Each structure stands twice: as structure tokens, then as C-alpha cells.
Automatic annotation (TrEMBL), chain A:
Keywords: Membrane, Transmembrane, Transmembrane helix. GO terms for cellular component: membrane. This is ABC transporter permease. It comes from the Bacteria.
């Protein structure tokens, strides 16, 4: 089986068109943008708030859209038809991941424009966000493969949105209860700490530890996604 | 056109739990050939599962173009297209976007315009599939498999519950596929549609596979064994016009005008009244003789129809016709070519 970019593009194109008509899923984009307007108008934006919106975008837009588009193909039984076609599951998932990535990047740029976030070192932040996107895509893929319907997907994604989207609140708790101090290793917290260091004008050498933690998260999630995917493939 | 063997089923059998679904059978389908298999739902499902590699083939083999179906090779490498009864397409996308997508995924050379014309979907090409009626959706499914452009086409219940226009579209599709030298296998539970769609119809059940005789013979040929016991027959010498049928141990009598049509199934004639079948104790020939004075007509080897109930005579192609009845279900009954001439004569048409 050859890996065909033409088929990936066909799947990307189809899912983009489909999402533009599927308001139940695509309206999730409104959430971070609305938050950006709300906070952007109310407060002097701190780094904490910028990253709350960025993390919310990653958890809701990236993970949820990835999860929902996979779950929908399963719910409507269109995946069965696709599996009989020359397209492989890898191509299908790649096409869908591209959809999530494009929508995430667009939402992030829109939010940053609204809240006026300009990182001191754009390249470093871009790399960190890109690694995070991989983690959230893998997470969405796992949940999408596990859930059977879009409604199930939208329920299963809620804990993810709370944990990663509003995770900054966890840090407050962690200060109170040292027992849960491990939360600082969560990818959403790591990226905030990384952003602080960027604003302090530090270079890559000083913050490589955050990159490593982010990479480990992305890697573990991807491996787990591959595992679930293999298991599903055998089931079929 | 040279006929090439496309599908070869060898020694295929299926046992489900304790029940034998079908014993080992062989079947070959050549290019340009349309074959229908009439069976019940369980057998149809089992066959499809076997094609998909989801059910074990046992000792049997399925070969497409000489290549053995094998779970480890990807399904698409065998160039089989299956049009399921419950086919899934993208409901929010338009007909054309759906076909474009499938065309790209299958790297198809089939022109979308041609397929839209063939399935008569041109007026709906920009509407989302979810806005179409059931019959129109079925046409989208036919369009999808035409886009896939496989060598072997398998249709599951292609004309179940569809309107007449769609049935005609489907028969045109079949004619087109036969011209293109494709092999077609139709799986259906409806004998009438199997006979209309294909010249070679097989019945597959727990007794094996049997070719259904659909060649026309003169009505005088004795074709079925006498099944009526002698004593029952003598009581019939009194001229009763009622038609007796047997349900369990009861005998129910029907007035001929009540009857819509009679269908023969494995030597058993069934009387259809308001969509319900009642097994008759008579053979087709006896029934034909008895019912002739009441305006009944032997329109096919396996069918007798009450002409009073016929609303329409449909010409699908030059050689295939159907009668549409005026009952609630709008039942269609096959009309064979030779009988068509006879019917025209009876109606005083040339």
C-alpha cells in the first residue's frame, strides 16, 4: 500500500467542507475566540491569561475537532466504506489531523490578534506550540477511536478541556496541597513556564527541560494512539 | 466480447452455530454477466461477511480474476465494489462533492458527469445528500460504486423499496455495466426483482444452490408434480369458484377477484392477497386453468396475475417488462417477453 498525498488531500478537503456545514462541531472555535474578546476587553492581559486562551484553544479546538471528526465517521458508518477503499487508516487519520492543525493555527492567530499577544521570541514559542499540537492531536485521535458517536466524543472531551484548558487554576491548588504538585509537569503548565522564560529573554539552552517534557508528552500520546489504532484495526 | 471469468466461488459453505446456512456450492460469474442470488437475509449477510473477510471461508475459496481473497491483503486490491443496502455517504455534502471525493480516493478515471447522467442525479447534484428522498439516495449509492469502477460489482437489495424511476435507472446501470464487460452479482430476497434484473437467477438456501428456470415454455408443459391428494380433488368436481389455501391446518377460501397475483416458489404456489401470501394446494397449471375465466393471466412461468388489478405495464428495456398492480403496495410482477406479445393481443393492441 502506497502512501498517497492525493488521497490525504481528498480527505482533508472533504472534512473541511463537511466541518463547514457541521455546526455542532465547528462552533467550538467560537469558544476560545469569545474568551479572547471577553478577557481582552476586561483586563490588562497577563501572560497567564494569554496562555489560558492558548491552552483552551489546544484542548477544545485541536483535541475536540480531531476526536469528533473521527467519531463521526464511525457513527455514520462512513469509515467502513473508507476502509474498503484504497485509502488506509493512516491516510485517513493524517488527512483529519491536517484539518485540526489548520483550524487550530487559524484560531490561535485570531486569538493572539484579539488579545494582542506578541512573544519576545516567536520561533521558540512556535516550536513549543507545535509540539503541543502534536500531543493534543494524538489525544483527540485516541478519544476519537475510543468513542462511538459525536455526542459521546463531546462528553469524553470535557475532562480534557477542564484539565488542560483551565489547568492554570490547578497551579493555585498545587501551591496549597503539595501532594498534587506533579501537575506542573502537565503540558499546559509547562508551556506557560516556558513562555515566562521566553519573556525574560532566556535562550533555548535555559529552557530545554520544558521542551523535553513537552516532547515526552507528545511522544507518549502518539505511541498510545498508535497502540489504540492497532488494536482497533485488529478488531475490524 | 470475449468472456473472462471474473468471480469464482468454490466449495463455499457456511454453518452458523448449529444451523446450516448453505452447503458447499460453486459459482462462476463471467465478464459482461449479471447473476442474481435469491436468498434469505442471514445467507446474504453471511455471504457479504465472507467477501469482506470478516467471516471464515472454511474450506471454500473466493477468487476474483484468479486471485484468492485473503484477509491479509487489502480489500481494495481485488477491485470488488460492494453497494450495501445501508450504504454510508457524507450526508451534509452535496451529491457532486461526495462523488468528487470518492473519485479522488479511488483515483478513478470514470467521469463524474457521465455517472450523474446515468443515475439521473443531475438535477440534484448540488443538493446535500440528506435532503434527498430514499430512492434518490439509493441512486447516489449506485453512482458511488460506478465511480469506484471495480471489475466485480456486488449489489445488496438494489431495488428494495425504491420508486419506479430508480428501478429503471438501476436497470439502465446494469445494462451499461454489461456493455462495459463488468461482472455483476446481485444479492436479493425478492424473487420478482431478481427475475427482472437478471437472466440467470440462483436460489441459495440450506439445500444448496439451484438455477431458477426462467426460460419461457408453453403453458401446457407439465412442470410441477401433482401435490393434491386424490380425495380432495374429487370434492372439487362440484363447480366451486373459490380458491382454497392452507394456513397451518386451516383451509381458507378466497374469491378469485380478491386475489392480486400468484407466485410460484420452489414448486409451491402462493396466493397473494393484500400483500399477504397464502400457500395454495394447487399447482400453477391448475390455478391457471381455474382462474382463466376470471381474467387471470399467466404473465411469467412463475406468476399468474389478476388482470383486473393491473394498473400499468412498464417497459424497462426492449426485453424486460413488469406489471404494476393497483394494490396498496404497488406490487410489480415480471412479464416475460413472449407473454408480452400475448398480453398485447388480449388487450387488442398491436
Amino acid at each position: 500500500m502506497t502512501f498517497s498525498w492525493k488521497r490525504i488531500y481528498a480527505i482533508f478537503n472533504k472534512d473541511m467542507k463537511d466541518l463547514s456545514k457541521n455546526y455542532f462541531v465547528s462552533s467550538i472555535i467560537v469558544l476560545p475566540i469569545l474568551m479572547a474578546f471577553l478577557y481582552g476587553g476586561m483586563y490588562e492581559m497577563g501572560l497567564e491569561l494569554h496562555y489560558m486562551i492558548i491552552n483552551l484553544t489546544l484542548a477544545s479546538v485541536t483535541a475536540f475537532i480531531q476526536c469528533a471528526v473521527i467519531a463521526e465517521e464511525k457513527e455514520k458508518h462512513t469509515l467502513r466504506g473508507l476502509m474498503l477503499s484504497p485509502a488506509s487508516l493512516t491516510e485517513i487519520l493524517t488527512g483529519k489531523s491536517l484539518v485540526s492543525i489548520v483550524l487550530t493555527v487559524v484560531t490561535l492567530i485570531l486569538c493572539a490578534m484579539i488579545t494582542g499577544y506578541e512573544p519576545r521570541n516567536f520561533a521558540l514559542i512556535a516550536i513549543a506550540i507545535f509540539i503541543s499540537i502534536i500531543f493534543y492531536i494524538a489525544l483527540g485521535t485516541i478519544l476519537g477511536l475510543l468513542s462511538r458517536t459525536v455526542v459521546e466524543a463531546s462528553v469524553i472531551i470535557l475532562p480534557v478541556i477542564f484539565l488542560f484548558g483551565f489547568g492554570s487554576l490547578l497551579m493555585v491548588l498545587a501551591e496549597k496541597y503539595p501532594a498534587i504538585s506533579f501537575v506542573e509537569y502537565l503540558p499546559n503548565i509547562q508551556i506557560i513556564e516556558l513562555a515566562y522564560e521566553v519573556e525574560l529573554g532566556l535562550g533555548f539552552v535555559d529552557m530545554w527541560d520544558h521542551f523535553v517534557v513537552l516532547l515526552v508528552w507528545a511522544l507518549v500520546a502518539s505511541l498510545f494512539a498508535a497502540f489504540v489504532y492497532k488494536k482497533r484495526e485488529i478488531d475490524k | 466480447m470475449i468472456q473472462v471469468e471474473v468471480l469464482s466461488i468454490q466449495n463455499l459453505e457456511r454453518q452458523e452455530k448449529d444451523a446450516l446456512l448453505f452447503p458447499a456450492f460453486d459459482l462462476k460469474v463471467y465478464s459482461g454477466e449479471i447473476i442474481a442470488i435469491h436468498s434469505n437475509l442471514n445467507i446474504r449477510m453471511a455471504l457479504l461477511q465472507m467477501f469482506l473477510g470478516k467471516a471464515p471461508l472454511g474450506k471454500g475459496e473466493i477468487l476474483v480474476k484468479g486471485e484468492k481473497l485473503d484477509k491479509n491483503s487489502h480489500f481494495s486490491s481485488f477491485h470488488i465494489g460492494i453497494s450495501f443496502f445501508e450504504q454510508a455517504v457524507y450526508h451534509r455534502l452535496s451529491v457532486k462533492d461526495n462523488l468528487k471525493f470518492f473519485s479522488q480516493v479511488y483515483s478513478s478515471s470514470q467521469s463524474i458527469e457521465e455517472v450523474l447522467n446515468l443515475t439521473q442525479l443531475n438535477p440534484y447534484k448540488n443538493s446535500p445528500v440528506q435532503k434527498l428522498s430514499f430512492s434518490e439516495k439509493r441512486r447516489v449509492h449506485f453512482a458511488k460504486i460506478l465511480i469506484e469502477n471495480p471489475i466485480l460489482y456486488i449489489f445488496e437489495e438494489p431495488d428494495l423499496n425504491v420508486d419506479l424511476e430508480t428501478k429503471r435507472v438501476f436497470l439502465n446501470v446494469l445494462e451499461y455495466l454489461a456493455e462495459q464487460g463488468k461482472a455483476v452479482l446481485i444479492l436479493t430476497g425478492n424473487m420478482e426483482s431478481a427475475i427482472t434484473m437478471s437472466k440467470s437467477v440462483y436460489r441459495l438456501n440450506d439445500e444448496g444452490i439451484h438455477l431458477v428456470e426462467i426460460k419461457d415454455e408453453s403453458a401446457s408443459t407439465v412442470e410441477e408434480e401433482e401435490t393434491v391428494p386424490e380425495d380432495e380433488k374429487t370434492t372439487m368436481t362440484v363447480n366451486i369458484n373459490k380458491i382454497p389455501t392452507k394456513v397451518n391446518d386451516k383451509i381458507i377460501l378466497f374469491d378469485p377477484p380478491e386475489i392480486d397475483y400468484i407466485e410460484s416458489n420452489d414448486g409451491q404456489s402462493n396466493v397473494f392477497i393484500k400483500g399477504e401470501a397464502f400457500p395454495s394446494t394447487f399447482t400453477m397449471n391448475e390455478l391457471e386453468e381455474r382462474l382463466m375465466p376470471f381474467g387471470f393471466f399467466r404473465c411469467h412461468r412463475s406468476y399468474i396475475v389478476n388482470l383486473q388489478k393491473v394498473r400499468e405495464v412498464i417497459t424497462w428495456t426492449r426485453n424486460s417488462f413488469s406489471l404494476v398492480l393497483d394494490d396498496a403496495k404497488k406490487s410489480t410482477i415480471p412479464l416475460s417477453k413472449t407473454k408480452m406479445a400475448q398480453l398485447k393481443e388480449m388487450l387488442g393492441l398491436k
